[in-house]
């Protein structure tokens, strides 16, 4: 069972990275509309996306999506708010000293 959860986590991370990739994010008005002023989208909102919902159904009651977001080198994960953003937003904030 743990192996399946690891597989689900890996697939969820890949799906999140795709959603927040430049190729997708730049043309996905719905996803951008879910983002707050800092560019973060609540994981609770993403759980309803059909592909992620199907993945998460394979590992019910687990923190798969949070772990997937937290372990991605391409994304920023805000654990306090349960939200994820494109990694470039962090780099922009860092560059501005925020």
Q: How many alpha or pi helices? A: 7
Q: Helicity, in percent?
A: 55-70%
Biggest sheet, spatial arrangement of strands: 1-3-2
Given the C-alpha coordinates, what overall shape results?
A: globular
The helix/strand order is: HHHEHHHEEH
Radius of gyration: 13 Å
- Residues in β-strands, percent: 5-15%
Poorly predicted spans: none
Observed structural traits:
mainly alpha; 98 residues
Describe the structure.
This protein is mostly helical. The protein contains 7 helices and 3 strands, in the order H-H-H-E-H-H-H-E-E-H. A 3-stranded antiparallel sheet has the order 1-3-2. Strand 2 and strand 3 (83-86) form a beta hairpin. Helix 1 packs antiparallel against helix 5 (50-57) and helix 1 crosses helix 6 (64-70). The longest helix has 18 residues, at 2-19.
Present the secondary structure layout.
Blueprint: H1 2-19, H2 22-25, H3 29-34, E1 41-42, H4 43-46, H5 50-57, H6 64-70, E2 75-78, E3 83-86, H7 87-96
Antiparallel strand pairs: 1-3, 2-3
Short description:
The protein is mainly α and 98 residues long.
